[in-house]
Amino acid sequence: MMQRIGLFVVAALVGAFVLTLSPAAQTWAQGGSGPLPPGPGVELVYAKCTQCHPITQVAESKGLPAFLWEDTVGLMKKLGMKVTEQEQSTLLDYLTVYMGPNPPPTETASETPAGGGESTTGETRAQASGDLESVDGAVVYQANCAACHQPEGQGMAGAFPPLAGHAANLFAADRDILPLILRNGLQTTIEVEGTSYSGFMPAWPTLSDAEVAAVLNHVLSSWGNKEALPEGAELYTVEDVTGLAGAEVDVVQRRQQLTLE
Amino acid sequence: MDDVLREAFQRMERATLERREVLRLMGFAAAASAGLPTILQYARAQDTVAAASQVIRGKSDVLIVHNDRTGVMETPLEELRKNAITPKEILYMRNNQILEPQGRSLDPVPLEGWSITLGGLVAFPRTIDASTLADLPQTEAEMVLQCSGNGRSFYARAVMTRGTQWAHGGMGNVVFSGVKLSDLLDTFDPPLDPRPEALFVTAEGADGPPEGASHPDFEHSLPVDDVLERAILATHMNGEPLPGAHGGPVRLVIPGYYGTMNIKWLSRLYFVTMQTNNVNQIPRYRVPQDPIQPGSPIDYTFENSEPSWRQRVKSAIFAPLDGETVNGPVELRGVAWNDGTVPVSMVQVSTDEGKTWTAAAVDVPSSTYAWHHFSAQLQLPAGDHRIWVRAIDDLGRSQPLQGTVRWNPSGYEWNGADVITVTVS
Questions:
Q1: Over the stretch B276-318, which tens digit does the pLDDT of each residue have?
Q2: ipTM of the predicted assembly exceeds 0.85
Q3: CB contact under 8 A, B47 and A55
Q4: What pLDDT score does B316 carry?
Q5: Nearest residue, CB atoms, A199 vs list B40, B70, B104
Q6: Apex CA B104: angle with CA B98 and CA B107, to 5°?
Q7: CA B25, CA B4: separation in Å to the nearest integer?
Q8: Which residues fall within 8 angstroms of residue A116, CB to CB, at 6 or more apart?
Q9: Residue A248: Cβ within 10 Å count
Q10: Residues A147, A6: Cα–Cα separation, whole Å
Q11: Closest-CA residue to B282 (of B298, B294, B259)
Q12: Phi and psi, residue B320, nearest 5°
């Protein structure tokens, strides 16, 4: 009798009504921090929390004592939030400082150039998990990708393209396109085997280069992708991903020009 | 369009369809319902929240949306005070989970085909079709429906607490009607008598946790005596079929209890010896047995805490609004209520920070569970004034002047004396 209705269904049903980015979301997309004060880890808060509730619900809790933020993160894990230990400490570092009862003055916080705090976090995280061997791509996938692309990479018609099979085709057509999409996001309508997909694919600055490589290698080794890879295909190294940092590429155009098998 | 939604839902009910297919259908249905092309914009891109009518079809956009995913919305006081019976369009909502798609709309849901299981410590468990409820004697209760977190934001006067920062608008005064649970049990042959060792009833709705969540489904346990004395299997609200968004076709309603205990989309009632250890019974939706220092943690056990069952005595000032400027005498009015065990016959007003109190006039409502309207005319000199109000029920239970003495980490059950500041010009 019990219906296990997916988080992503809820998100998609609500999302269906939202056709354009709000001005605040556009600010966010341009590197601002929306309703939350800027600080290291803010974008991870955004990425994790808004999978189930709007960011405004975090914003309205500004001033919670540290132990209640710890409690809250613990409760959210019980309610389904997936985080690695490292992500959890990044979340708590941000929430207890910037959303606690005594946050640093905004002037100090805004002295950090927009995105500056974020890249610091990114560097720290990349260093901490710079070794590809130490990252489990399957864990990264379930924590960050599965909500939209589905646990088995099957995607969701109309919104999120399948990765099963499709990822191998993308790889075969353009070896750099997958890491470029993860680094830059892809906000456009694409067609995959006659079905169009228009969901919002954000950029993933919260993932280290090693995590990007690991999660892509996981995808390319799963759900029929492995068999569909071109012969002698080499999976990603951390250096492959690092080498694409800051590349001036129009990812939308590059993706649309691909001819897929 | 409704047909598309219904089809998707029925297919899920039968669970004969691959999940992927259901998602596809529901995605299309949702887009169709908004009259939009099938473009799904992932909600992550949102910095702001969707309007109430976009979250729940039929809701008024005057509502303050706290959570636009599951549907958490608050009624502003200036809207709430307009009606003695709160219309469904502006009634607050608080969902932990939502039953798609019927929970997304104020439309009624057919009783036929909806089954409810009654089991546990009974001689003969039963499953009924909800349509049988229509043929049984009907019971009606005008009552306050209030979120256990209503007023949570006021705890920040001491230390902020965790959760949606409700002001006074997480409540409404509605009329539920349907079949009293005890009447239903008596209709069975042999009667469905709970065994004496059944001390609680665990109730569950047909809604489920998010996909992949490791926690169990939402459910609550309630004391069996109150359930047998009060509970209604509600099929109507305010004289109309119960909207899907408010738990239709059948909601377990226990007049006098906090909102969360009134299980929506009722599917299962189990008579049991012990409270469930579901996360929503413990540590959520509980308050400490004894006061704790504001800002200090508590590790909840069944012994040191109690569930948010019966509502505490409480009042809310409807007029003037906090911060309003008033010309001439102050026409004070508002509502008081409690758990309905006895009436709330006394409401007192203080304009000197609680040193002296005068009685307001209190109306006698149709039911002890309903809002008790109060009013008073205050002659105050020009200038700023703080006006305090506290209710006292016929058992002598009242509201603390400093509501923060009941501080608890999740900010449940706020019932501090209400206070507003007005400027008399």
A1: 999 899 999 999 999 999 999 999 999 999 999 999 999 999 9
A2: no
A3: yes
A4: 98
A5: B40
A6: 125
A7: 8
A8: none
A9: 4
A10: 9
A11: B298
A12: -70, 170
Chain B interface includes A74 (CB < 8 A): no
**At B284, which amino acid appears?**
R
List strand residue ranges (DSSP E) for chain A, in order: 190-192, 195-197
Q: How far apart are CA B344 and CA B391, in angstroms?
A: 7
Give the residue among B141, B156, B303 at the shortest CA–CA distance from B231: B141
Average pLDDT, chain B: 89
Tokens of B351: 């304009």
Return the DSSP state at B46. Answer: -
> Token digits for A56?
């405004």
Per-residue tokens: B43: 């909600």
**Max CA distance (Å), chain A:** 58
Does this model's pTM top 0.90? My answer is no
Alpha carbons A154 and B24: distance in angstroms, whole number:
12
B55 touches chain A (CB under 8 A): yes
Q: State whether the Cα torsion A129-A130-A134-A137 is positive or negative.
A: positive
In DSSP terms, which residues pair with A96 in a beta bridge?
none
Distance CA A210, CA A143 (A): 15
Decide: helix, strand or coil at residue B126.
Answer: strand
| Closest CA relative to residue B111, chosen from B2, B251, B277, B225 | B251
**CA distance linking residue B99 with residue B97, whole number of Å:** 7
Q: Which residue has the tokens 């353009």?
A: A174
Q: How many helices (H) and strands (E) does chain A have?
A: 16, 2
Q: If 0-12 CB within 10 Å is exposed, 13-18 middle and 19+ buried, where does residue B214 land?
A: exposed
CB-based contact B50 A14, cutoff 8 Å: yes
Is the distance from CB of B44 to CB of A200 less than 8 angstroms? yes
B337-360 burial, b at 16+ Cβ within 10 Å, e below that, comes to bbbbeebbebbbbbbeeeeebeeb
Interface contact A199-B99, CB threshold 8 A: no
